[in-house]
Design a protein that fits this description.
It is built from 17 helices and no strands. The chain has helices at 2-13, 15-19, 25-30, 33-51, 56-79, 97-111, 117-137, 143-152, 167-189, 193-220, 234-237, 247-269, 274-285, 287-305, 313-333, 344-358, 363-369. It starts with a helix and ends with a helix.
Length: 370
């Protein structure tokens, strides 16, 4: 969540640099957010399917309910922050990372019990590869088919939508990480914490090494590119290709994100900085509400302030985190996550209660009542 905040802060504060085609170091660091966000989400579903296997059916309903909230009410609340940007119709031509999370959760919680981890890894890699084949091979003509392509896999170089987060590539990442999460769950059941740490370290190192290798190979085996055709080749091997997530971007930024997760896991296992961990976990538990709030802080409030360019920008960023931390503390303390629902859990609970009430009472229950 801190990386998300950094990414969105820099996209507003350094907008002029963005528009001129330049790169800003804090913005580049913030690019770790999306692959780390998706990886952690996928790993948690896989891990909980193992660690909480007996109660996973109830948890599945909760996750489906939350995913439906993300795709409906949550989507509206997030994109409404863009109504403060000119032109106002920008919000209507936008999909966000929470949409990809919602779709991935709906599919992932269904597949995690029906398929083996190896199957989901193959399926995830296959989806990612197929998505990139569609990026190059699917050339729609009509407006709605162009919209469908951008929502599903993204588009290069011209777009109809203002901003989209492609579903298929991120679903592929989610499925692969759900398999990793199951492996972590089995390690935790054996109380093999060192194994958990080794797994994160290996994933982090392997991802970065593969990403760098692919990038170097792309320099050495560059095919002849016609004038103006660099968009055909560059994005798929670029570590900065986020809007259509390239394999190099996902592996490199995701690998660095896994290194951060490894660090947090090591600190947690050794019970270091317990008070700090308790504080930041409030943000984790309030992540959706925090994600919605920071959209308005950065894309609405910060955008209207027009702060001067200054080397003191880290101070501005830290100040912007104060209301976010305070909000997360209140939200978590009052357990307001229960409000983030479309009513699916209560519906199933009421149906179960009615079913139980309709069953004939046993002789023992009848005697007890009398």
């Amino acid at each position: 969540m801190l990386l998300v905040c950094l990414s969105h802060f820099t996209s507003v504060y350094f907008r002029a640099e963005y528009q001129s085609g330049g790169r800003v170091l804090p913005a580049q660091i913030g690019m770790l957010a999306s692959p780390t966000f998706m990886a952690v989400s996928g790993m948690m579903v896989g891990l909980m399917s193992v660690v909480y296997s007996r109660g996973f059916n109830k948890l599945r309903i909760k996750l489906i309910d939350r995913a439906l909230f993300l795709l409906t009410v949550g989507h509206v609340l997030v994109v409404m922050a863009r109504f403060f940007e000119p032109p106002e119709l920008t919000a209507l031509r936008t999909t966000v990372i929470t949409d990809a999370v919602g779709v991935s959760v709906l599919i992932g919680v269904w597949l995690v019990r029906l398929t083996r981890p190896r199957t989901r890894i193959l399926l995830g890699v296959g989806l990612f590869a197929a998505a990139w084949l569609l990026v190059y091979g699917w050339q729609p003509i009509g407006t709605w088919s162009s919209v469908a392509k951008e929502v599903l896999v993204g588009a290069l170089p011209n777009r109809v939508m203002w901003y989209t987060v492609p579903l298929l590539q991120w679903l592929g990442v989610y499925l692969v990480c759900s398999a990793l999460g199951q492996h972590l769950g089995w390690l935790y059941l054996r109380d093999d914490r060192r194994g958990v740490e080794r797994t994160f370290a290996m994933i982090a190192v392997a991802s970065v090494v593969v990403a760098v290798t692919l990038r170097v190979i792309s320099w050495g085996f560059r095919p002849p590119i016609p004038p103006g055709g660099s968009w055909l080749y560059e994005p798929i091997f670029s570590p900065w290709s986020k809007e259509v997530p390239s394999p190099v971007y996902v592996l490199f930024m995701g690998g660095l994100g896994m290194a951060l997760v490894w660090l947090v896991v090591c600190i947690s296992h050794r019970r270091l900085g317990a008070r700090l961990l308790i504080g930041v976990t409030r943000i984790g538990r309030s992540s959706l509400a925090v994600f919605i709030l920071q959209q308005y802080i950065y894309y609405a409030l910060l955008d209207t302030l027009s702060l001067p360019r200054s080397r003191a920008w880290p101070l501005f960023f830290l100040i912007s985190l104060i209301p976010i931390f305070a909000f997360a503390g209140v939200w978590d303390k009052r357990q307001l996550n229960t409000t983030l629902t479309v009513g699916l859990r209560s519906y199933f609970q009421k149906r179960a209660d009615r079913s139980k009430a309709a069953q004939p009472a046993s002789a023992l229950e009848t005697a007890a009542r009398s």
